[in-house]
Design a protein that fits this description.
The structure holds two protein chains of two kinds.
Chain A (H helix, E strand, L loop, with lengths): L11 H68 L6 H12 L3 E8 L11 E7 L6 E5 L11 H8 L4 E2 L3 E3 L5 E11 L5 E10 H9 L8 E6 L4 E3 L11 E8 L4 E8 H4 L1 H59 L12 E8 L7 E8 L2 E9 L3 H19 L5 H14 L7 E9 L4 E7 L5 E4 L2 E4 L19 E4 L5 E5 L1 H4 L10 H10 L6 H16 L8 E8 L5 E5 L8 H12 L6 H18 L8 E9 L2 E8 L26 H9 L2 E7 L2 E9 L1
Antiparallel strand pairs in A: 1-2, 1-7, 2-3, 4-6, 5-6, 6-7, 8-9, 8-11, 10-11, 12-21, 13-14, 14-15, 15-16, 16-19, 17-18, 17-20, 20-21, 22-23, 23-24, 24-26, 25-26
Helix pairs in contact in A: 1-2, 1-6, 6-7, 7-8, 12-13, 13-14
Chain B lengths: L1 E7 L2 E7 L4 H7 L4 H5 L4 E8 L5 H17 L2 E5 L3 H9 L7 E3 L1
Parallel strand pairs in B: 2-3, 3-4, 4-5
Antiparallel strand pairs in B: 1-2
Classes of the chains: A alpha+beta, B alpha/beta.
C-alpha cells in the first residue's frame, strides 16, 4: 500500500471516535427531545382536562339554573291544568326567571283542550331582533310538534332532559337546545311537555371565553353529533392538533378543546431550536477541531514517514560503515600483539575511521576523524578508508602513504572537508612503530605503568594542501607496552555540565590499564566515558584502538642482515635460563639454529630486498621446539645436497656442512611452505 | 672474535679468542690471509679460547687445511674444547684435522 492510499489509515481510529461522539450527541439529543415533547403533551393534557372540568362545571351550573326554573314552573303548570290560559303566565315566568332563556313553551298532547284545537302549544319568547316578549300559540299543521323529537321524547319520559339542537322556526327562529320536562296530570298521565329554549350563543359565550393556548378553542357537541358551539372563525385551518374532550353526560353534550401542535409545542420548539443550534455549533466545532487535528496528525505522520525513511537509510549507511571496520578477530592469530578497536558513532553514521590489518609480519593501522558528521562525513570516511587500504597495500613508509592520501583527498574536495589521521606501521617482531601524524590527537603510550602522550608534533591535516609534505617518526615498543589511539570523541566527551572528559582524565584513566588486555582497556575506557557523560547525549563519534606489544622472549626476529645473527646467542641464553634448561646442549642448539638462520638470511631473499627471519623457540613434551619462518623464495633446505663427509681432504666440499649439522644435532627436522612462508620446524629431545 | 697471529720461525700460531660463528667468520676471513700465504709453514690453530664454531668457521679451517695440503705445510689444532670437538666429529672433520692437546 502506498503512503498516499494509506493517508488516513493511521487516523482511522480517531475519525471513528469522533463520528461515534457526534452520533452519541445526536442520539442523546433525540431522546431528550422526544422526552420533552411527551412532557409537553402530558402538560397540555392535564391543563386541557382541568379546563374542560372547569367549563363543564360552569355549563352545568348555568344549565342547572334553567332546569330548576323549568321544573318549578312544571309544577305550576300541572296545578293549573284546568286553565289553559294560565299557561301563558307560566311560560312567561320561565322566560323572565333566566335571561339566558330565549323562550319557553308548554305543548299539550293532541286534543287535550278540545276547545283550543288539535294542537295546543303555549309559547312566550323574545322576538328575534328586539327585546319584546311575545306570547302565542304555536301548534298548527305547519308546526306539527307531535312529530318533533323533543315532544315525542318528553311524552315518553318520566323526567327532564336536554334535547338535541334544532332550528326553532316557530319560536326564536334560531338554533336552540331545549330543556324539556313531561307534564303530568293528577292521574300521573303525561299530558304535555314543558320546554325552555336556550340559544347556542349563550353556551358559546361560556366556552369561547376559555383560552388555554393562544390558538386553542373549545367546541360543544350535542348527543347527535351536531355542533352546539362550532370552532370560532379565527380557528386555524390545517396543521396537526390535539383534541381533548369531556362528556357532560346528563346534559347530553360533549365539551372538546382543540390545541394546535404549534401551540402545544411552542416552547419545546423554541428551546429545541436553541438546543439544536447549540448542538450544531458543538458538532461543527468538533468537526473543525477534528479536521485540524487530523490534518496536523497527517503532517506529523508524513514527517514521521520521512524521518523513518531517513533513519532507514542512515541505518543502512551505518551498516555499510561498520562493515568497513576490521573484524574483531584477525584472520590468523598474531604473535606479539594484542589489539582491539571500538567505534561508537554518535548519530548512526559517523566520520570516525579506524582500521588495521597485518601484512608481511607488519601491523598497519590508522585512526582518523573526518570533519563534520552524518552521511557526508561517512562518505569521505569510506573514501579515506579505501585509500588507506589501497595505498598501504604496497608501501611500508607511512609518510609516503600519508602524502598519497593527502593528495588524493585534497584534489577532489569541493566541500573543503578535512581529515585528521594517525597512521602507523608496526614491525610485529621488533615492536618498532614507524608513524605519521596528520593533525590527529597524539596517541598515549603506556610503559611500565606510566602513561604519556606521544610527544611528536603533528603534521598538517589531510585535505588542506595537496602539496603538503609528511615525515615519519619512530618508536620502539617493549614487551608489555601499549599504544593507545583515540579520536576527539574521547577527550571532548561532555557531561551534562558541559565539562570535557579532557586529556588529563584520559591519561589518568589509562595509567591504570597497564596489566589489562587490549579488549579490557578499550572496554574500561568506554565505561569511564559513559560514566562521565552520564545522561548527556554523545555528541561526537568515539573511536578507541589499543595495541599492546606482547612479545615474550620466545621469539626472535632478524632482518636479512648477517649482523642480526648476533642476537641469537643472547636470545638463546635468556631462553635457556628462563626455561631452566641443561646448558650442556646449548652450544649444539645454538649451532643448529645459527646454521638454519644463516641459510635464510643469506639466501632466502633476492639481493637487495629486505626480509626477515623469525625464530621462535619453546619447550613442549620434553622437546625443544624451534620454528624458523621467512617470507622469502620458497626453498626447502632439507633437499639441498649434503656434503659428502666420507671422502679425502681433496674431495671435501667447502659448503653443505650447515644443513648436515642441523640434521645431526636435531632429532626432528621438517620443512613446510605455509601461507606463502617457509617454515622450518626443528625439535631436540632434552 | 679476535685472532692473534704469532710468527715463530717456521711456525705460525693463530690464537682464536671468542666465538667463531657466522658473523665472526665473515669478519675474520681477511685476518687469516697470512696463514694462507704461508701455507707451507707449520700452522697451529690455538682453539683454547674458542667455545663455539659454526659451519662458516669450519669452512675457514677447511680452506686453510686444503691450502696447507697443497703447499706441503703442516696444520694442527690445539686445545680444542669438547663442544667444538663434537662439531668436528659430527662433520667428520676430526679425521682431516690433526687435533693435539
Amino acid at each position: 500500500m502506498t503512503p498516499q492510499k494509506d493517508k488516513y489509515q493511521f487516523a482511522k481510529k480517531e475519525i471513528l471516535q469522533i463520528l461515534i461522539a457526534i452520533f452519541a450527541l445526536i442520539s442523546v439529543s433525540m431522546v431528550y427531545y422526544f422526552h420533552i415533547r411527551k412532557e409537553a403533551l402530558h402538560t397540555a393534557q392535564m391543563r386541557a382536562q382541568a379546563t374542560l372540568k372547569n367549563s363543564e362545571r360552569v355549563i352545568t351550573s348555568r344549565m342547572g339554573k334553567i332546569e330548576i326554573a323549568v321544573n318549578a314552573m312544571r309544577s305550576m303548570a300541572e296545578y293549573a291544568l284546568d286553565d289553559p290560559d294560565a299557561m301563558y303566565d307560566i311560560a312567561n315566568s320561565i322566560v323572565e326567571s333566566n335571561n339566558r332563556i330565549l323562550g319557553a313553551g308548554i305543548a299539550f298532547k293532541a286534543d287535550y283542550y278540545p276547545e283550543k284545537g288539535h294542537w295546543h302549544e303555549t309559547y312566550v319568547g323574545y322576538q328575534k331582533g328586539n327585546d319584546t316578549l311575545v306570547s302565542k300559540q304555536l301548534g298548527s299543521e305547519e308546526h306539527d310538534y307531535f312529530q318533533m323529537d323533543w315532544f315525542k321524547h318528553g311524552m315518553s319520559s318520566k323526567e327532564g332532559f336536554w334535547s338535541n339542537p334544532y332550528f326553532d322556526n316557530a319560536g326564536g327562529k334560531t338554533y336552540v337546545v331545549s330543556y324539556c320536562c313531561p307534564v303530568f296530570d293528577s292521574a300521573d298521565e303525561v299530558v304535555g311537555v314543558i320546554c325552555a329554549d336556550v340559544s347556542f350563543d349563550t353556551l358559546a359565550k361560556i366556552i369561547q371565553g376559555v383560552t388555554l393556548y393562544p390558538h386553542s378553542y373549545c367546541t360543544l357537541i350535542a348527543g347527535d353529533g351536531s355542533l352546539l358551539v362550532p370552532p370560532p372563525a379565527s380557528a386555524k385551518k390545517g396543521g396537526k392538533s390535539h383534541v381533548f374532550s369531556e362528556g357532560i353526560d346528563d346534559k347530553n353534550m360533549t365539551l372538546t378543546i382543540t390545541i394546535p401542535d404549534s401551540d402545544m409545542y411552542k416552547r419545546l420548539r423554541e428551546s429545541s431550536l436553541f438546543f439544536a443550534f447549540m448542538a450544531l455549533t458543538g458538532i461543527f466545532s468538533i468537526i473543525f477541531i477534528a479536521y485540524r487535528l487530523v490534518r496536523n496528525l497527517l503532517k506529523l505522520h508524513e514527517i514521521q514517514i520521512k524521518e523513518q525513511h531517513i533513519e532507514d537509510e542512515l541505518a543502512i549507511a551505518s551498516n555499510i560503515q561498520r562493515a568497513l571496520l576490521p573484524s574483531d578477530v584477525l584472520p590468523q592469530p598474531v604473535k606479539n600483539i594484542d589489539i582491539k578497536g571500538l567505534q561508537i558513532p554518535a548519530k548512526f553514521v559517523g566520520g570516525d575511521l579506524y582500521d588495521y590489518y597485518i601484512r608481511d609480519n607488519k601491523l598497519l593501522f590508522c585512526v582518523g576523524d573526518v570533519s563534520g558528521k552524518g552521511v557526508p562525513a561517512a562518505l569521505l570516511m569510506a573514501i579515506a578508508h579505501s585509500l588507506f587500504r589501497m595505498l598501504s597495500a604496497r608501501d611500508d613508509r607511512p609518510e609516503q602513504i600519508m602524502e598519497a592520501l593527502n593528495t588524493a583527498i585534497s584534489d577532489n574536495n569541493p566541500d573543503i572537508m578535512f581529515i585528521t589521521m594517525f597512521l602507523g606501521i608496526m614491525d610485529l617482531s621488533t615492536g618498532e612503530i614507524r608513524y605519521c601524524n596528520a593533525g590527529h590527537n597524539p596517541p598515549i603510550v603506556i610503559r611500565n605503568g606510566h602513561a604519556e602522550f606521544l610527544g611528536t608534533e603533528p603534521s598538517l591535516l589531510l585535505g588542506v594542501d595537496p602539496t603538503a609534505q609528511y615525515s615519519a617518526n619512530e618508536l620502539t615498543m617493549s614487551p608489555g607496552d601499549t599504544f593507545f589511539l583515540y579520536t576527539d570523541g574521547l577527550t571532548e566527551a561532555e557531561n551534562i555540565q558541559e565539562e570535557l572528559f579532557g586529556e588529563r582524565r584520559s591519561l589518568e584513566t589509562i595509567a591504570t590499564f597497564n596489566t589489562l588486555t587490549a579488549e579490557e582497556q578499550v572496554e574500561r575506557m568506554r565505561q569511564a566515558v559513559k560514566k562521565f557523560a552520564d545522561q548527556a547525549e554523545q555528541s561526537d563519534d568515539l573511536t578507541l584502538l589499543s595495541i599492546r606489544f606482547t612479545k615474550t622472549g620466545n621469539t626472535l626476529c632478524m632482518s636479512n642482515n648477517i649482523e642480526e645473527l648476533n642476537k641469537l646467542e643472547p636470545f638463546l641464553n635468556e631462553f635457556f635460563e628462563r626455561e631452566n634448561l641443561d646448558l650442556s646442549i646449548l652450544p649444539q642448539i645454538n649451532l643448529a639454529l645459527e646454521e638454519a638462520a644463516t641459510n635464510v638470511i643469506m639466501y632466502a631473499y633476492p639481493e637487495g630486498e629486505k626480509g626477515t627471519a623469525e625464530l621462535s623457540v619453546e619447550v613442549a613434551d620434553g622437546l625443544i621446539c624451534a620454528t624458523l619462518t621467512d617470507s622469502g623464495t620458497p626453498f626447502n633446505p632439507l633437499q639441498q645436497q649434503e656434503a659428502n663427509l666420507n671422502v679425502s681432504l681433496e674431495e671435501r666440499q667447502i659448503g653443505g656442512l650447515g644443513i648436515h649439522l642441523i640434521k645431526e644435532i636435531m632429532d626432528e627436522v621438517e620443512y613446510a611452505h605455509e601461507d606463502g612462508r617457509n617454515v622450518l620446524r626443528m625439535k631436540k629431545r632434552l | 672474535m679476535d685472532i692473534n697471529i704469532v710468527n715463530e720461525g717456521n711456525t705460525i700460531t693463530a690464537v682464536f679468542d671468542g666465538r667463531l660463528d657466522t658473523v665472526a667468520a665473515q669478519q675474520v676471513a681477511d685476518t687469516l690471509d697470512p696463514l694462507l700465504q704461508q701455507a707451507d709453514s707449520n700452522i697451529i690453530l690455538d682453539c683454547e679460547k674458542m667455545p663455539f664454531i659454526s659451519s662458516s668457521g669450519l669452512r675457514i679451517f677447511l680452506k686453510i687445511r686444503k691450502k696447507v695440503a697443497a703447499k706441503g705445510g703442516k696444520m694442527c689444532l690445539k686445545h680444542v674444547c669438547p663442544d667444538v670437538q663434537q662439531v668436528f666429529k659430527m662433520t667428520k672433520l676430526d679425521d682431516i684435522f690433526e687435533i693435539v692437546e
